[in-house]
Amino acid sequence: MVARRGPQPGVTTASALFAWEGAPDGVPSRRLVTRCALARVCGACGRPLGHPIAFVGTSDEVARNAFHLPPLHDGCVDAVRALPAPVPLTVVRTAGFEFVRPGSGDADPLPRFVPNSLL
Ligand SMILES: [Zn+2]
Predict the structure, then answer these.
(1) What separation in Å is there between the alpha carbon of 74 and the centre of ligand 1?
(2) Which residues are near ligand 1, the ion (C-beta closer than 5 Å)?
(3) Dihedral sign, CA of 99, 69, 32, 25?
(4) Is the dihedral of CA 101, 107, 112, 118 positive or negative?
(5) What is the pLDDT of residue 24?
(6) CB burial of residue 8 (10 Å; 0-12, 13-18, 19+)
(7) How confident is the model at residue 4 (pLDDT cuts 50, 70, 90)?
(8) What's the rounded mean pLDDT across residues 30-56?
(9) How many angstroms separate the alpha carbon of residue 104 from the centre of ligand 1?
(10) Domains of the chain: which residue ranges?
(11) For residue 56, which of 40, 39, 75 has the smallest C-alpha distance?
């Protein structure tokens, strides 16, 4: 009998989440984060986003209103917040967002999400 690898009940593993697939280091795949942005799907479950849209981020990301983790359903936030993180993550909710790709010389080299109407 072949043992199947998979998440254990009650344990959230990053690779079980849509945008983190194949990312054992706990950092979401840039390709999948971009897909979440363009297809407007949830970074945790991969299903279409509704309203509100939730983002989780560090206090710095909240202050800048620029988030690097993909958009989430409100109900999927806990799965992402359960991941090991070096700092506590704050949740913000919005009706919409812009996806900003870094320009050359941009101080932030990563694509990011800018909520446009915080709830
Ligand atoms: Zn979801």
Answers:
(1) 7
(2) 42, 44-45, 73, 76
(3) positive
(4) negative
(5) 67
(6) exposed
(7) very low
(8) 96
(9) 32
(10) 14-115
(11) 75
